[in-house]
Amino acid sequence: MGVISPHRIQPSMLLILVLLSIFTFSASAATSADNTFLHCLVNHSESSHPIASAVFTANNDSFSSVLQAQIKNLLTALHVSHVQASIICAQKHNLLMKIRSGGHDYEGASYVTSTPFFVLDMFQLRSIEVDIDTETAWVQAGATLGEVYYRIAEKSKTHGFPAGVCPTVGVGGHISGGGYGNMMRKYGLTVDNVIDAQMVDVQGRLLDRKSMGEDLFWAITGGGGSSFGVIISYKIKLVRVPETITVFRVTKTLEQNAIDIAYKWQQVAPAIDNDLFIRFILDVVNSTTNVTKTGRATFVALFLGDSKSLVSLMNEKFPELGLKQSDCIETSWLRSVVFFADINITEPVEILLDRQPQPLIYLKRKSDYVEKPISKEGLEGIWKKMIELENAVFQFNPYGGRMAEIPSTATPFPHRAGNLWKIQYKADWKQAGKEVTDHYINLTRILHEYMTPFVSKNPREAFYNYKDLDLGINHNGKNNYVEGKVYGVKYFKDNFKRLVEIKTRIDPHNFFRDEQSIPTLPY
Ligand SMILES: Cc1cc2nc3c(=O)[nH]c(=O)nc-3n(C[C@H](O)[C@H](O)[C@H](O)COP(=O)(O)OP(=O)(O)OC[C@H]3O[C@@H](n4cnc5c(N)ncnc54)[C@H](O)[C@@H]3O)c2cc1C
Ligand SMILES: *[C@@H]1O[C@H](CO)[C@@H](O)[C@H](O)[C@H]1NC(C)=O
Ligand SMILES: *[C@@H]1O[C@H](CO)[C@@H](O)[C@H](O)[C@H]1NC(C)=O
Ligand SMILES: *[C@@H]1O[C@H](CO)[C@@H](O)[C@H](O)[C@H]1NC(C)=O
Ligand SMILES: *[C@@H]1O[C@H](CO)[C@@H](O)[C@H](O)[C@H]1NC(C)=O
Ligand SMILES: *[C@@H]1O[C@H](CO)[C@@H](O)[C@H](O)[C@H]1NC(C)=O
Ligand SMILES: *[C@@H]1O[C@H](CO)[C@@H](O)[C@H](O)[C@H]1NC(C)=O
Questions:
Q1: Which CATH number do you get for residue 188?
Q2: For the residues 336-352, what does the mean pLDDT come to?
Q3: Which of 10, 34, 90, 199 has the fewest CB atoms within 10 Å of its CB?
Q4: Which domain holds residue 196?
């Protein structure tokens, strides 16, 4: 996993970035800056919670590195009143607001754009209050998933929460955009386990589920926060997990029958016991027996039970994988998070409190949904294409179980029954530069094109949390609705209509907007 260093970053595109930061605040910073927006902020913040500010101007090449560096620093709203002041003043001074919690947006939508903007960073609003008696917790938007998991496990060894596998992802973006993790076959999506929320709307009002109403609550549990307001916190429902669970990671190359195993995985993974989640990763490696490249299949699994039961379940349902007791690691649910994050499982679990993601890389992601198993010939072709392209990775996440039971209208996330699994297309690279960037982005586009016969159609579905600007961009002008519909139906299918109605009602002037936000209805 790496951070997000969006390929679209170009100093010339970035004009103003106002960062709210306690560390750089001083009265002179506010007055010397020739910026009425800052005055407005100061004026609108409560004296008991003074607002902090700092200004960066982006007229030289260092700006993107400044921006990058700031991502790793503490910049932030410290109190709800700061969020309220930002919303009011941004409208008054016609500034675009970017909301950032964990900063893990795949397209940098939380901190990059082409018009003047400022970033409202939620980093400091990150408290986590776990109540085991009621099996709930209030988690603020700026907390990371790793922190949430750690704080739950601190209070109970038999509770967990079904959210994403990357511990540095932020609550704000992750939950508002849907959120899935390796317990989804048992407990559904993250948003299927959210029971209340606190949000500041376009008028600066702090709302909870009761005062915002069921429509708006529905919208911010999968429709993305950045179209509707600033999420302050969510109340989540904890789930039960056994004290001991089992994980494994098993790899097979093409020479080890990977195609046959992958073929069987398609039948098994979406249908097997809900306690078992088997992720399947496909990549290209050097062959050990041959000078050429070969395809490698990696099966990474979480089983909510002990290894003995797992091995017997696998022997019965998926003997082709040949899972052995020695492949299995019995551990706690919290440690399984470390394992799934590709961190050595013997590391101290405190690593989950580390908000710094692994070394900076550039990345591109795309997604697809598969509704029918792919034939062996189809799989062979995909493998061949992968080897030809070399540097792209597929990740297949099985659905079924609880995912197939929840109606597609229960939350804005529509990809439920009928989907066997989701595909993530993945390209990571370390070198900057347009040529390299184009090369890697092309790989994902070529693969996406190649997969057309195997995936959902009309619309070709995509996962909103895997933001992909290839699906369409909104310029938020006159064609707002028409442009928004292009990507909107891919992410939300029929739920797009309801999201647009809610958006039009609560933010008619489209203050909360980005490249792929929910549009308002044309008037
Ligand atoms: C390494 C990695 C692993 C991932 N793994 C998973 C996974 O296992 N499961 C999964 O579902 N997703 C996963 N994702 C995707 C992730 O859930 C989304 O990118 C998510 O939006 C990130 O949230 P954030 O707060 O970290 O991001 P940010 O970049 O801060 O925000 C993302 C979006 O949400 C908006 N937003 C953020 N905070 C708020 C707020 N408080 N109020 C309103 N809007 C807000 C932003 O404006 C932006 O549009 C992964 C991403 C990465 C980079
Ligand atoms: C600050 O607020 C007061 C009262 O609301 C208003 O009269 C004044 O013009 C504001 N000043 C600025 C700089 O916005
Ligand atoms: C340009 O970048 C340099 C650092 O490389 C910095 O010292 C300087 O202040 C920047 N200029 C402006 C106008 O921001
Ligand atoms: C794979 O082989 C190439 C040469 O064919 C070599 O440059 C590369 O380092 C190898 N990669 C790994 C991971 O061994
Ligand atoms: C190496 O792999 C290629 C392509 O899969 C195959 O045609 C060839 O026979 C293999 N050679 C050896 C020595 O295994
Ligand atoms: C994990 O760390 C332990 C202790 O440092 C080490 O012995 C082991 O080889 C590591 N495992 C992996 C898979 O790197
Ligand atoms: C990427 O694809 C575009 C259009 O398909 C093409 O013009 C360009 O040359 C490709 N770039 C690379 C580096 O492959």
A1: 3.30.465.10
A2: 95
A3: 34
A4: 128-240
